[in-house]
From TrEMBL:
The keyword Amino-acid biosynthesis applies. Belongs to the threonine synthase family. This is Threonine synthase. Catalyzes the gamma-elimination of phosphate from L-phosphohomoserine and the beta-addition of water to produce L-threonine. Residues 67-362 form the Tryptophan synthase beta chain-like PALP domain. Its cofactor is pyridoxal 5'-phosphate.
Amino acid sequence: MEYVCVECGHRFSLDVNPWKCHCGGLLSIEYEKKPIDFEATAISKDHSLWKYIYALPFENDDCWRSITMGEGGTPLISLARNLYAKADYHMPTLSFKDRGAAILVAMAKKLGVEEVVADSSGNAGTAIAAYGARAGIRCHVFVPASTSHKKIKQIEAHGAEIHKIPGNREDTAKAAIEMVERTNMFYASHIYNPLFWEGTKTYFYEVFEQLNGKMPDAFIIPVGNGTLLMGAYIAFREMISWGIINKMPRILAVQAENCAPIKSAFISNKTKVEPCENKGTLAEGIAIAAPARGSEILKAVRETDGDIIGVTEENIASAREVLAHKGIYVEVTSAVNYAAYLNYISKYTELKDKTVVLPLTGAGIKSN
Ligand SMILES: *Cc1c(COP(=O)(O)O)cnc(C)c1O
Ligand SMILES: [Zn+2]
C-alpha cells in the first residue's frame, strides 16, 4: 500500500508519514482490492462497513476489530416517490464522518502511531476523537473558536485536547498544519489523508445493496472539502472496474450560496478553485472558502455529468423545518441536502421520475 502524489506521481510508503508531496501535490492511495461480492454482503450478519473488508485497506484479523463501533449499515428512508434519504446520523458519533475516521484511526493504530493532529469544523474532529479514544491514541483537535458548543463538548468528552483557533476555518487549518510540521505527528486529516475516503466510499456500496443491486440515477452530495463526494467518485470507479455498474450515477453537489467557491469555478468552466469570501452561513459544516481538493472535486463532478448548485440561508432554514415535520431531525448543515433536492427538481423537472438519494449527514441535536 502506498500514497501516490496526484501531481507528480511520486510514491511514499505509509511509514514515511507524509501529509503531502515535496512538490506540494496532495496524496491519493493505492493498494490491492478485491471486487465485492454484493450478494454475499447483502446477507451478511455483519451490518457494519467492515463487511466490505476485501475492498478496504485491511486484513480480516487486523486491529480494526478492537476499534470498530459497528459504524455503517445506516437506514435508507423513503421520503417521496423515487426519493430516499440515507440516515448517516445513525452513527456512533452522529455524523457520516465515522466512516472515514474508523478507517483512518485503525490505520494509524496499525502503523503504531500514538498521537495525531486533526482539524475540523466539528464533526470530523469528533469522529477522530472518539475513534482515537477507542484506539488509545492521543488526539489534538483544532477547531474554529466559533464552532458549536455542543460539538466542542463532544470532542472534549472523548479526552481529546482541543485547540480553539480564532479566525476562520482556514486559520484553524494553518494552526493544525503548523503543529504537524513542527512535530511530525500523524495528520489524521479528512482532507489531506486519502484513507478517509476509503471509509466514506462505503456509503455508496450500501446504497447499491439497499436498492437491491441498483445504483440510483443521482446522488445529492454536500460539498465543503468533499469528504463524501470523493468517496462517491472512488466507489463509482471501483464498481465500474469490477463490472458491477456500467455508468456512473450523477453527482448533484450543493454548497451554501454564501460560501460557494467550487460552484463558482464549476459554472465558469474552470479547473481550479479560487478561494472565496465566506459571507457567513448556517451550514457551518460545509463553509470552506479555500477547499484544498477543489480541482479533484470539479473533475469528479464533471466526469459523472453532474452539477453543483448553491442554496440560500432561507432554503436551508426552511428545509430543516420541513424535514423535522417529516420526523427527521438533522443538524442545520445537513438540511442543505434536502434544500438542494428541492432546487434540483425545479432545475431538472425530469429528476422527479429518477431515483435520487440524499444524505442525512449529521444529527439535529448537534446544532446549537
Ligand atoms: C463534513 C460534513 C459535510 C460534508 O462536508 P465536506 O467538507 O465536504 O466533507 C456535510 N454535512 C455535515 C453535517 C458534515 O459534518
Ligand atoms: Zn509530487
